[in-house]
Design a protein that fits this description.
By secondary structure, the chain is of the alpha/beta class. The chain is 37% helix and 14% strand. It has four helices and four strands, in the order βαβαβαβα. The chain has helices spanning 14-28, 53-61, 93-102, 135-160, and strands at residues 2-8, 35-41, 87-90, 107-110. It has a four-stranded parallel β-sheet, with helices on both faces. Strand 1 (2-8), helix 1 and strand 2 (35-41) form a beta-alpha-beta unit. Helix 1 crosses helix 4 (135-160). The longest helix has 26 residues, at 135-160.
Length: 161
Amino acid sequence: PLRVTAVCTGNICRSPIAEIVLRDAVERAGLGHAVVVDSAGIGGWHVGEGADPRSVAVLRRHGYDGSAHRVQQITARWFESDDAPDLLLAMDSTHARDLRRLAPEAEVVLMRAFDPALDADADDLDVPDPYYGSTRDFEDVLAMIEAATPGTITRIRELLA
């Protein structure tokens, strides 16, 4: 199957939200049999833990279930196997830079580049880190990810073709 991995700093806020929302969209698009969606962090501080409770709460308020998420760290070993990610969705430009160093052959895209309301070449396509923010910041992250999800599904369909 095609593997799509959302990546943020610690895999507790942004990338779990992206993983859960995108997995739901993949299932609704009838592509669940052909696509594996997961997420990871650049850093390993929280490996094995669940998502930030605020991420889980915002997902729950919008009909998603993030309770089963477990943090993992993306490393070079991910790209040495047959199940390496085919598409890496970076939550911000620092993650994209780190991923391009880690896996120079991989397709790395800022997730918000798939938002049709935005210019894919805009200077700032970052999903801001809500960790030190309020509930509103987590809501904003969810909204940004949901806005980019249909375009991400379009890219997934292209990769599957």
